[in-house]
Each structure stands twice: as C-alpha cells, then as structure tokens.
C-alpha cells in the first residue's frame, strides 16, 4: 500500500477539476510529505437553479466499521440536502474527515477521522446539467483513494489505475500499429513487474488459475478475476465475462467519472452504493 501511496501522490492533480499528467511528465512530487489541498483547488461557489423535474442521487453506506450501515445521503442538483457548507447550493458535494478550516466549513459529508485511509478532503461529487443531467465523482488526492467497482465493460485509458486484492496496476497504452498495452504493477506481490501485450494476445486473463495470462496466488482473487480484451480499444471487465469476481475489480477515479445507478464505490474502509432516479422539485 505504501508503494501505491507514492505513485498516487506522484500522479495526483494540480487542479481538482482535471489532470494534465502524462506518461512523459517527470515526477516532481517525490520527497513531499503530503499534498497541499487548498481552497484554490476547490471551484468557486456558483448558484445552481434546480429544474422542476431533476435527477436525484442517493449514496447509501453498505459496508463500514465506523459509519452506520444504511446511512443515506440525499443529493440534488444544488448539492447535499441540508448541508451546512453552503446556503444556496453550488452543485458540488465534498466529503472528508475535516469539518472546518479557517472558520469555513469545507465538507458536506464528514467521514470518520479514525478510519484508515480517509483524507481530510477525500472526494467530491458534482452535478452537470448539460448536455444531459448527470453526477460525477472524483478523488481529491488526500487519503488512500476513491475507487469505483467496475460493473460493466470499461474502456481503458493511459494512467488508469486498476485495483484488485492487494495489487494496483497502472495502464499504459501505445496506440501505434499494432496497438500495445503495458500493465505495470505499482503495489502488491508483483510490484515493479511489467507485462506487455499486443492485440493478438487478447484476451488477457488475470486470476488464480494456471491458465491465466497473469497468475496470482492470492485467495482474495477469484479464479478468473478480470479479463482484458481488444476490440478497437482495450477493454477491462470484472470476472470471466459471465460471472463477476467475488471481491471486485476497482478503478481509482483520479478524474471525473460518471455515476450510474447501483454503482458501488469505496473510500477508506467504507463502501457506498448509489441510486439515481427522477424526482420533482
């Protein structure tokens, strides 16, 4: 996990609304003890008008040692219902263990300070009304990451970090012909190992079985834990294509990721499930 923390710090953002890190960019953060998540990284408040019919979001705690199971947070286009952070709503929800900084409330959702892996300013959710109404989630770079469980085929991009069991791997895609894929493990039993593939190597199977392309002796992984295929793009899917894995394959949401209904994500030792539905104001 410490190795993931180091790489995590190296690639996390200069601005919380985007990442301009590329695989050619030199590492500049080594030696810094922590990220400086300041108010300059938080977008200025803006007044959001709520439509008569709008997309509502619930996030529900489904697994946690510190937060009551079933605890529900209701979110509208304005932000978290009954938040203390803003009076009129700015379309954003911030979550972390820090309640107040410089006499200003900084988080809408307060996470337990004594929960392992939780940051003071951990993640945010933002509403977007155009071109279609949706909610987006993004890690803020403080803590040990915000991870979304991959529940449907996901097109891979360079610098994606995929997590399963004790392992974290970073994706590097070379779009020259023939297209190539490199999987570099940045934590876990295969730390610092690289695996390179071309489209002819598809499918790439990761799991515990002897016939897996990348094999692990890790009981937290399923026999066929996840699979990567090439179909015009490199695509990852949890499980073997028919059955999902037991403990999941997870994407670290360094950049904004669209929230969908029944999505599962984890922060520290707490796991949430989402519900989205149309409501009337």
Automatic annotation (TrEMBL):
Domain of life of the organism encoding this protein: Eukaryota
SUPFAM superfamilies: SMAD/FHA domain
Residue intervals of the FHA domain: 204-251
InterPro entries: FHA_dom, SMAD_FHA_dom_sf
Protein name in the entry: FHA domain-containing protein
Lineage start: Eukaryota, Sar, Alveolata, Ciliophora, Postciliodesmatophora
Ranges in coiled-coil conformation: none
């Amino acid at each position: 996990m410490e190795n993931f923390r180091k790489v995590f710090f190296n690639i996390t953002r200069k601005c919380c609304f985007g990442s301009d890190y590329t695989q050619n960019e030199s590492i500049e953060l080594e030696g810094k003890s922590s990220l400086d998540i300041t108010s300059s990284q938080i977008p200025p408040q803006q007044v959001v008008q709520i439509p008569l019919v709008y997309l509502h979001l619930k996030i529900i705690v489904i697994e946690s040692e510190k937060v009551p199971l079933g605890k529900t947070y209701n979110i509208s286009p304005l932000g978290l219902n009954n938040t203390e952070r803003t009076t009129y709503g700015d379309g954003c929800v911030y979550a972390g263990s820090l309640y107040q900084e410089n006499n200003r409330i900084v988080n809408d959702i307060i996470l337990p300070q004594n929960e392992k892996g939780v940051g003071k300013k951990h993640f945010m959710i933002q509403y977007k009304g155009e071109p279609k109404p949706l909610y987006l989630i993004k890690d803020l770079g403080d803590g040990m990451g915000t991870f979304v469980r991959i529940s449907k085929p996901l097109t891979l991009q360079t610098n994606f970090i995929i997590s399963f069991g004790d392992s974290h791997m970073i994706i590097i895609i070379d779009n020259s012909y023939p297209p190539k894929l490199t999987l570099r493990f940045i934590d876990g039993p295969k730390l610092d190992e690289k695996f390179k593939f071309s489209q002819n190597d598809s499918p790439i199977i990761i799991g515990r079985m002897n016939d897996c392309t990348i094999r692990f002796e890790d009981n937290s992984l399923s026999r066929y834990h996840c699979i990567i295929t090439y179909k015009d793009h490199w695509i990852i899917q949890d499980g073997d294509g028919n059955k999902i894995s037991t403990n999941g394959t997870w994407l670290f949401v360094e950049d904004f990721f669209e929230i969908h209904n029944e999505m599962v994500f984890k922060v520290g030792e707490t796991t949430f499930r989402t519900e989205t539905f149309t409501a009337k104001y």
